């Protein structure tokens, strides 16, 4: 039912819109500023803005995202004014009683602001709870005569966007952290190892298996520990496609072939910016590449060998892949680059033990996850500050790993690796600086650490 209210006082991609809204909920708390995007629109655009708002039981109406057309506008509204207008769309909706899936339409004409607002009110899953939401478009009042004949068409199209958006809202719940019990979808030790290794390898993981639903559930779970930007550089697997491994993605799901096997290309994996965790959901195994400094060393040596081989030949096609590896006689990389996860941690173990004590559903658990990620971020910043002070901002070599581990409560190797990985993404090259010679193998590194 449409409601027209006269007040005399005071190709956006729908999937991307709703994923941007929802996936950000698993990250450290956002700043109070409302997220805003400028959208390039071909031709003349009568819209001033579009908004997504929801009802918060504590804070009332809240605007989650604002979209505005890119370019010059004859009429300009500040973000504060857009937020003020969007809040009007949810006022009075706290007691909304509608059947599941119903969409109500509200039509505002705000004479003093010189705008009209078309709002669609609906129920959706946000942060694991049902919320009253509003998707609104704001136009100048001068466009009223132009818009009214198009009202029915616009509303029907926006309703379809909302129907698809509600599906995306529901799908986000399909993670291990939303299960009633950790045993619902995977064994506790497997989940612990997967998340721990995922964090130790800077949030880069490959998830392989025969069942796409099982693979994607782990992919979505690991994506909860990434930033929104990193999630955009991640990929689910699809049952009807033949996705291959892509260098540079953070998390990617890959399906095994009909024989139940999957072969990773050595070169592409080695050329990834960060080391990678390999997770097999069929047999519940977790393996990881060596730490950042060793990964970077092997990567550069292999690249040098590849370029040297190319220099000696007329065509890149003349170089067999196995020849590149042995071009540099001093470089003999281990082709079995994935190793068992050697170091236990207490940070992820405590998180998993405690998060499943909370009520099922992503409301409380997503908040707890955000606090956990914020804790790791602060530990990483503290570690960087500690090393800066100890080395006079890099003027002196770092000599006191044992003191660092004690002072920062990182005596457990897995905890140190996780915080170091977070810090590496904040300050590239940290591993090589801390561990001295970057060509330590992982075994040598363990021997060095054991001696402290």
From TrEMBL:
GO molecular function: guanyl-nucleotide exchange factor activity
Parts forming coiled coils: none
Biological processes, Gene Ontology terms: autophagy; endocytosis
InterPro entries the record matches: C9orf72 (IPR027819)
Cellular component, GO annotation: autophagosome; endosome
A Pfam family the protein falls into: C9orf72-like
Source domain of life: Eukaryota
Protein name: C9orf72-SMCR8 complex subunit
Species: Sparus aurata
Gene coding for it: C9orf72
């Amino acid at each position: 039912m449409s409601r027209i209210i006269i007040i005399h006082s005071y190709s956006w991609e729908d999937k991307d819109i709703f994923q941007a809204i929802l996936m950000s909920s698993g990250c450290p708390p956002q700043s109070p500023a409302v997220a805003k995007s400028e959208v390039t629109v071909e031709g003349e655009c009568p819209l001033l803005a579009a908004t997504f708002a929801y009802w918060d039981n504590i804070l009332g109406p809240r605007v989650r995202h604002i979209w505005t057309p890119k370019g010059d506008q004859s009429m300009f509204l500040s973000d504060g004014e857009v937020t003020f207008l969007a809040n009007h769309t949810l006022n009075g909706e706290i007691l909304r009683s509608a059947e599941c899936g119903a969409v109500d339409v509200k039509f505002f004409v705000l004479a003093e602001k010189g705008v009209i607002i078309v709002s669609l009110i609906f129920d959706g899953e946000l942060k694991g709870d049902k919320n009253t939401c509003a998707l609104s478009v704001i136009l100048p009042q001068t466009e009223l005569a132009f818009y009214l004949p198009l009202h029915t068409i616009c509303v029907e199209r926006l309703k379809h966007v909302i129907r698809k958006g509600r599906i995306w809202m529901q799908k986000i719940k399909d993670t291990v952290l939303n299960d009633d019990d950790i045993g619902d979808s995977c064994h506790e030790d497997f989940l612990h190892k997967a998340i721990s290794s995922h964090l130790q390898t800077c949030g880069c993981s490959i998830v392989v298996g025969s069942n796409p639903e099982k693979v994607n559930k782990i992919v979505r779970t690991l994506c909860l520990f990434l930033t929104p930007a990193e999630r955009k550089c991640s990929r689910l697997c699809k049952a009807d496609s033949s996705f291959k491994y892509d260098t540079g993605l953070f998390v990617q799901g890959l399906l095994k072939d009909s024989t139940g096997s999957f072969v990773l290309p050595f070169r592409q994996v080695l050329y990834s910016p960060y080391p990678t965790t390999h997770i097999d959901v069929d047999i519940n195994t977790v393996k990881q590449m060596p730490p950042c400094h060793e990964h970077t060393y092997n990567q550069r040596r292999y690249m040098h060998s590849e370029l040297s081989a190319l220099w000696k030949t007329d065509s890149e096609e003349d170089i067999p892949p196995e020849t590149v590896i042995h071009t540099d006689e001093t470089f003999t990389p281990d082709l079995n680059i994935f190793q068992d996860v050697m170091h236990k941690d207490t940070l992820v173990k405590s998180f998993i033990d405690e998060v499943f004590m909370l009520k099922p559903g992503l409301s409380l658990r997503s908040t707890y996850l955000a606090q956990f990620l914020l804790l790791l971020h602060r530990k990483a910043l503290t570690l960087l500050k500690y090393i800066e002070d100890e080395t006079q901002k890099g003027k002196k070599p770092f000599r006191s790993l044992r003191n660092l581990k004690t002072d920062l409560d990182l005596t457990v190797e897995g905890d140190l690796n996780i915080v170091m990985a977070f810090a590496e993404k904040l300050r590239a090259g940290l591993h090589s600086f801390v561990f001295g010679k970057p060509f330590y193998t992982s075994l040598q590194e363990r021997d060095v650490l054991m001696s402290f």
